Amino acid sequence: MEQKSGTQSVQDALKKFKALDEKITHFSSIVGLAEWDQKVMAPKKGRNVFAKAAGTLRTEVFKLSVSNEMGDVLAALSTPENDHVLDTVTKAKVREYKTYYQKSKTIPAELFQEYSILTGQANDAWEEARDKNDFTIFLPYLEKIVDYKRKFAELFGYEDHPYDALLDEFEPGLTVKVLDPLFAKLRESSVKLLNRIQHNGQKTRVEIFAQPYSVEKQKEFNHYILPIIGFDMDAGRLDETVHPFAQTVNIGDVRLTTRYLEHNVRSALFGTIHEAGHGMYEQHINQEFEESVLQSGTSFGIHESQSRFLENMVGRSKEFWTYFYPALKQYFPVQLADVSLDDFYRAVNTVEPSLIRVEADELTYNLHIMVRYEIEKALIAGEFEAKDLPEIWNQKMQDYLGITPPTDTEGVLQDVHWSFGGIGYFPSYSLGNLYAAQILRTIQKELPEFKSLIKNGRFDVIQEWLRVNIHQYGKLYTPNELIVKVTGEELNADYLVEYLEEKYSEVYSLEDK
Ligand code: ZN
Q1: Structure confidence by residue, pLDDT tens digits, 198-245
Q2: Options 3.30.1490.190, 3.20.20.70, 1.10.1370.30, 1.10.3720.10; which CATH number does 176-507 get?
Q3: How many Å lie between the centroid of ligand 1 and the Cα of residue 296?
Q4: Residue 247 phi/psi, 5° resolution?
Q5: HEC string of 324-348?
C-alpha cells in the first residue's frame, strides 16, 4: 500500500515511537544513576565535572523529547483513524510524551534558557540567604522566578486560576477549584484538633528520644526492618545522605538513602520507612512497562501517598510497634529500659507545633503545607509580591500553628523548592496524606484483618495488595483515574480528617470535642 506524503503508517510510527521511548528511558536511567552517585558516592573534587556530564546527557534527553521526530510520531499516533487502533498501554505512553512535548513547545527556547540560568544562580543565593538569615539576598531572584512562573502559567494556559497550570506539572489534572475545599476542610479540622491536644491532651514521653542512640546500632536496625516490611534488597539498596531520597535506576534497581543522627533516632527510622514506601512502589511496577515512560509512579501526590502510608499509617501504628518494639529494645536496652510499648507508641506520635516542615509530626505537617499552598496561589495570581513573603509567612504560621518564626532562616527561607522554581510542588505532600487515608479506608474494607497482619509482621500481604491495586500500573493511569479505580470515588478529605481525629483522640486520651 502506498503511503500518503507527509504521513506515516501506524506501524512505522509505532516502531519509531518505541525506539524513541526506549532511548529516552535508557538515557534517563543513566541520568538518575548519575544523580544518585553525585549525592552518595562521588568524591568532592570530581563533582563539578560530573555534574556537567550528567547535565549534557539530560539536555540530550530533553532534545529527544521535543525533537521533530517525536513531534511527527506523536502527530501520526494521534490522528482519529490511528488513535482507535492503539492499545491502552500505547495510548498512555503517547499521553505522557504529548503532555511534555506540548508544554515544552509553548515556552520559547530563549525564555527557557534564561530561566534555567536563573534557577542555577537562585539556588546559591537561597543558600547564602538562609545561612546569613537575610531574605533580601534571595528576594531579587525570587521576584524573577515568580515573574517567569506567571509567564509560564499564561503560556501553558488554564481555565480558572493561573496556579492550575503549575499544579498540573506535579499532579496532572488537579486544580485550585478541587483543592481549595479539600485543603480548607483539612486545615480547619487540624487547627481544632491541635488546640484540643494542646489544651487537654495527656503528655507523651517524647524525651526518650533526647538520649544518644548509637549510629551503628541504628544502621543495623534499619537494615533489619527493611526486608521485613517488604523492600526487595536484591532489587535495591540503602545508603546514607544528608537529605534522604529514593532514586530509581530501573525496576530491579531502586536505591534508598537515609540519614543517621545520634541524637534523633526517629530521623533515620521513619526516614527509611518513608523512602521504602517510595521504593516499593517502583519495585512493583509491571515488568512489561520496563524501559518505557510508564516505568514510574503516576504523580508526585500518589508517590507521596505510598511513602506516607507506610511511614505513618503502618509505621506509626500500635500494631507495627507491637511487632517491632521487642527487637528495637534489644538494640537499645539502656535507652528503652523503662519504656513500655504504649509509652513508645505514644512518643512516636507526639504532636508539637514546630517551625521546620521536615521535622513536623503527622498532624501539624499539613498546616505547614497550607501556609505554602496559600502563599504560592496568591503570589502567582498577583495578589501580593515576593517582598511581602516574610510577613505573610509569619502571620500564617501564627494563625495555624500558634508560633511565629524568630528568624527567616527558620521561616520563609527554610525550603529549597522556590529556588529551583518548584512552585506547585508543595501541595503534593498533603495530597499524599489525603490519598493515603482514602486508600487505608479501602484496604481495611478489603483486608479486614489489616491490623492483625501488621501485628504479625505479615507486611507481604499488605504489599501484595498495594502491588496489585496500585503499584503495578506505573504511569498507566492518571492520578485521578487511579484513585477512583482503587477506592471507587474521587479524592475526599473526610478520610484523612477522620483518621487524624480517631488516632489522636486515642494517643492523647481526648474526651469530647
Ligand atoms: Zn517522600
Answers
A1: 998 999 999 999 999 999 999 999 999 999 999 999 999 999 998 899
A2: 1.10.1370.30
A3: 14
A4: -130, 125
A5: HHHHHHHHCCCCCCCCCHHHHHHHH
Active-site option among 275, 291, 304, 376? 275
Which residues, other chains included, contact 110 with Cβ-Cβ below 8 Å and sequence gap of 6+?
none
Report CA(243)–ligand 1 centroid distance (Å): 11
How far, CA to CA in Å, does 513 sit from each of 198, 199, 502?
A: 13, 12, 12
Distance of alpha carbon 100 from alpha carbon 341, whole angstroms: 50
The CA 428 to ligand 1 mean position distance, Å, reads 9
Please state, in angstroms and rounded to a whole number, the distance separating the CA atoms of residues 1 and 512.
77
Contact call for residues 295 and 474 (beta carbons, < 8 A):
yes
Q: What residue type is assigned to position 285 of the chain?
A: I
Task: Give the number of other Cβ atoms within 10 Å of residue 80's Cβ.
Answer: 6
pLDDT tens sequence across 461-484: 999 999 999 999 999 999 999 999
297 C-alpha to ligand 1 centroid (Å): 12
Task: Determine phi and psi for 246, rounding to 5 degrees.
Answer: -120, 135
Alpha carbons within 13 angstroms on the beta-carbon side of residue 211 total 13
Respond yes or no: is residue 498 known to be catalytic: no
